[in-house]
Each structure stands twice: as structure tokens, then as C-alpha cells.
Design a protein that fits this description.
The protein is of the alpha/beta class. The chain has helices at residues 5-11, 21-42, 241-248, 252-260; strands at residues 44-45, 56-57, 62-63, 70-71, 76-78, 83-84, 89-92, 106-108, 113-114, 119-122, 126-128, 133-134, 139-141, 143-144, 160-161, 164-166, 171-172, 177-178, 183-184, 189-190, 195-196, 199-200, 204-207, 212-218, 222-224.
């Protein structure tokens, strides 16, 4: 049963809030500023790796703080200009302190973005090619539980492992799961919540659990089925941030009138 504001005021004496509102605001700002400082200092970069010794760590790459679970980093190779979000787990091997041999186990290419809370579990090889973007809470694993023996607890049975490859330029939606043996092609869209196994062709959109191809690009016919919305218009070259900020203040009616102007006549004085 809910508690009304009057009842709450009667139950909680004002002595529990001894500071005036301006002091509480100062404390709040101090806490937020302190946390921002901790996040900056706690992030992992090539110049400030902390206790981690990755197999390779490209320039411009950053692991945001707080980190998720990270182990087996000598067998983890990170490309340049990657963004690894908060609470992202990166592991190579079944457990820490294993000797996994001379070759990398987890390879992440240049320009990869891994969203907050994502997991990449590489017990055998996992390769994420360049310019892939992951939404939050994506789960990629090269290992699956086995349940061959009906009498043995599943967690005690030896798992099955298959390599995973994700091609360049992919977009992996929030909460997607990439299972062992998945081979995802170039510029693939994996819808949020999809569960992917097996091979996905280049330039495809997959969705569902298990994921299936729902749209694909054909060199002769374009996207099939056709896209329902026109492609976005990129910002013209040479437009400055100041000009964009000025456009943000234009009303919808004024924008509509500008769109109706003849481009050549609009430039005349």
C-alpha cells in the first residue's frame, strides 16, 4: 500500500535532513565531479594500461571505467581508436592464468565500439573486424554448454567450442547473442535481441531467435524487400558547427519555406 506525502512527512522528522538545499546541491555536484574524475583516471589506454598487459593495444583506444571482467589479456589484441564501454567483459581462455600458446585468441579491429555491459568470451578464437559497432549488452561467445550425459550436471560437462568471426562494418543491436560457430559477413545488421548462429551473408539484416535473414542487398535490385524510408541526407562538406547550431534554432515552418526555395535562386543577392 502506498504512503502519501503527508504521511511521509509525519513519519520522517526533519532532523534527518540537517543540511539546507544549497549545501545538498554542492555535495551532489562534488560527488558527480569526483565520479567523473574517477572515470577518467580509471579508464585503460595504451599510455595508461594499469595492471593490464594486452597482446597489443592500438593508439586512441580506451576501456571505460568501471571495467567488467578482463583476463587473458596477453592473448587479447585491440586495434586503434576503439571505444570499449563501461562494464564490458573481455576474456581469453576458460579462466585466468592459463598459457594459451603463441597466437592471439581475441582480435578486435580498428574503430570497434563495444556498448556498455557487453561480453566477449573467447575460449577459442573470436575475431571482430574493423568498424563494427555494438549496442549495449551484446553477448559474444565461442563456447556453449554441452548436455550429452543426462546424469551429469550440465555445468560440469566439458563445453563445446567453435571460432566466431564478425566481418567489418557490422552493426550488432542491443541484447543480441552471437553463438559459437557464427560467421557474420561484411556490413551486416543484427537486430536487437537476435540470437545468431551459423553463417550470415554480406549486406544482410538478420532478426529473431534463431536469427534469420529478413532483408538483403542485391547489386542489381538493391535492398530486398525495399527499404521503407529514404536514406538520410549527410551533412554537406564545409558546414561548420556554428552553422549547425544556428540551424537548430530554425522553426519547422521556416525550415519548410527554406526547403521550397530554388537552390540557384536562393544564392542570388
Amino acid at each position: 500500500m502506498g504512503v502519501s506525502g503527508a504521511e511521509y512527512g509525519e513519519r520522517v522528522p526533519r532532523a534527518q535532513f540537517p543540511f539546507p538545499s544549497w549545501q545538498r546541491r554542492l555535495v551532489q555536484r562534488a560527488v558527480h565531479a569526483g565520479w567523473a574524475w574517477v572515470q577518467r583516471k580509471g579508464s585503460v589506454t595504451a599510455d595508461a594500461p594499469g595492471r593490464f598487459r594486452f597482446g597489443s593495444f592500438g593508439p586512441g583506444t580506451r576501456l571505460a571505467f568501471p571495467l567488467g571482467t578482463v583476463f587473458g589479456e596477453p592473448w587479447i589484441h585491440l586495434g586503434a581508436h576503439c571505444v570499449i564501454g563501461e562494464q564490458v567483459t573481455l576474456t581469453a581462455g576458460l579462466m585466468p592464468d592459463l598459457d594459451l600458446g603463441p597466437e592471439p585468441i581475441l582480435r578486435i579491429g580498428d574503430g570497434v565500439v563495444l556498448g556498455r555491459g557487453s561480453h566477449v568470451i573467447a575460449d577459442t578464437t573470436v575475431t571482430i573486424d574493423r568498424d563494427c559497432y555494438f549496442g549495449p549488452y551484446v553477448y559474444v561467445t565461442s563456447t556453449n554448454h554441452s548436455y550429452d550425459d543426462p546424469h551429469e550436471p550440465i555445468g560440469k560437462q566439458w563445453p563445446r567450442m567453435e571460432p566466431v568471426t564478425i566481418g567489418p562494418g557490422c552493426w550488432i543491436g542491443t541484447g543480441a547473442v552471437i553463438l559459437p560457430g557464427a560467421r557474420i559477413g561484411r556490413n551486416v545488421v543484427v537486430a536487437a535481441g537476435a540470437v545468431v548462429r551459423g553463417e550470415v551473408p554480406d549486406h544482410a539484416v538478420v532478426a529473431g531467435a534463431p536469427a534469420r535473414v529478413v532483408r538483403r542487398w542485391d547489386p542489381a535490385e538493391g535492398w530486398q524487400p525495399p527499404l521503407r524510408t529514404p536514406p538520410p541526407v549527410p551533412i554537406p562538406e564545409g558546414v561548420t558547427p556554428e552553422q549547425l547550431r544556428a540551424l537548430a534554432g530554425v522553426s519547422e515552418a521556416a525550415a519548410a519555406r527554406l526547403a521550397e526555395l530554388d537552390p540557384e535562386g536562393a544564392t542570388e543577392t
